[in-house]
Amino acid sequence: MLEDYKLKMPGVVHGGEHALEKIIEIITDKYKKPAVFTDKGIEAAGILEEPFRLIKESGAEMYLIDEIPPEPTYEQAQKVVDSFKESGADFIIAIGGGSVMDIGKLSSIAATDDYRVKDLLDNPLLGKKTVKTLMIPTTAGTGAEATPNAIVAVPEKELKVGIVNEEMVPDYVILDGRMTARLPKKIAAATGIDALAHAIECYTSNKANPFSNIFAMEALRLIFSNIEKACEDSSAVKEKSNMLLAAFYAGVAITASGTTAVHALSYPLGGKYHIPHGVSNAMMLLPVMEFNKEACIDELVEIYDVVEGKEKESKEEKAAWVIDRIGEMIKRLEIPDSLNAYGIGHEDLEELTKAGMEVQRLLVNNKRAVTAQDARELYLKIM
Which of 61, 112, 143, 202 fits 216 for a cystine, CB–CB 3.0-4.6 Å? Predict the structure, then answer.
């Protein structure tokens, strides 16, 4: 466990049944022209009507940016940044999932002529915040509303890359369960397992510390007891709200700790094969946790004691229960568990392994060292 650690959180977080109404308080007399970042799918779902009404009620003039693609490349991100720069907007409101929020955060530090998004890939710390941000997540999973990270695809490397800069930590966050009420089961499941990956990776990371562990463990407690009903029952408002809170907690854990081999090995799956981020993490989660079991058995026992707490004879039984329970969740939520469904076969193994091993930023966090042969065998388990 780290002896030197810190916690960086959003400036103000509003949560609860009517949290969305805080939009008026946040904007009024402070911002004249907020830019709303979202995507066409969220628009089509009809969940923007209330936020738009509240923005209008604040007296501000809204500028809409709704052409944000899922899992954008850095070039696509730059186009959005350019649109924002041209708008003259003085505030950013990102309403959406991880991609929308990430591009909103990037725009807050890239709305300048001094550098471009591509430059931030090589030197993220170039970025300085010039516009404040409000994040309103519509999925309970990515935790992007809490983190200093923005994920973009780099096509020439066939990889996804995380741009990490504390300047991107949001200024305001609104967690309102109503914003996730219409989320399709498929998306709710993938993003929910993504939150699970964040929490358990941070708790078992080499960078784990007392700050990250508080948030990671509470996220795990909420996810283990709420994820299935939240995804399967459209009327499960309480469970959906609990998952939204869990995703935020897991995001906070990332800021204090860091993810591990699950995310490292999933990045090539998204970057080259365009597998959704939550799905690729779900695929890698079980094999990596099985691989890590002996190296982080004490942490798995601690997780068991909080999320289940029944008598078990041995540490091994407790650790095995946690891993088995993760497998049950993934299976019940019907998340794909094989790369074959995406046309990935043994002929792709060497390229995958090479790309995965390049993500040393995260692999160094893994409690058990991952060699190229280990990575190859982990990918083989999901083929």
Answer: 202
134 phi and psi angles, rounded to 5 deg: -125, 125
Residues 284, 375, single domain; the answer is yes
Residues 228 and 316 in one domain: yes
**Residue 329 contacts residue 228 (beta carbons within 8 Å):** yes
Pair of tokens at residue 352: 């995958």
For residue 276, what are the contacts with CB-CB under 8 A and spacing of at least 6?
A: 70, 71, 190, 270
Contact of 169 with 9, CB cutoff 8 Å: yes
Token pair of 145, please? 């509303």
Q: What is the distance in angstroms between the CA of the first residue and the CA of the last residue of the chain?
A: 34
CA 194, chain centre distance (Å): 6
Read off the pTM: 0.95
State whether 289 and 145 are in the same domain: no
Q: How would you write the pLDDT of the chain (383 residues) with one tens digit per residue?
A: 777 888 999 999 999 889 999 999 999 999 999 999 999 999 998 899 999 999 999 999 999 999 999 999 999 999 999 999 999 999 999 999 999 999 999 999 999 999 999 999 999 999 999 999 999 999 999 999 999 999 999 999 888 889 999 999 999 999 999 999 888 999 999 999 999 999 999 999 999 999 999 999 999 999 999 999 999 998 898 999 999 999 999 999 999 999 999 999 999 998 888 899 999 999 999 999 999 999 999 999 999 999 998 888 899 999 999 999 999 999 999 999 899 989 999 999 999 999 999 999 999 999 999 999 999 999 999 99
CATH number at residue 289: 1.20.1090.10
Residue 52 structure tokens: 């738009």
Q: Report yes or no: 158 and 119 within 8 Å, Cβ to Cβ.
A: no
C-beta separation of 355 from 267 below 8 A: yes
Same domain? 173 vs 274: no
Supply 316's token pair.
């091994």
State how far the Cα of 90 lies from the Cα of 230, in Å rounded to an integer.
36
Q: How far is CA 1 from CA 211, 262, 298, 319, in A?
A: 11, 19, 12, 19
Q: Which domain holds residue 127?
A: 12-180
304 and 172 both lie in a single domain: no
Per the domain annotation, does 246 fall within a domain? yes
- Specify the amino acid at residue 102: D
| Number of neighbouring beta carbons within 10 Å of residue 11 | 11
Which are the contacts of 44, defined by CB distance < 8 A and separation ≥ 6?
none
In the chain, the number of structural domains is 2
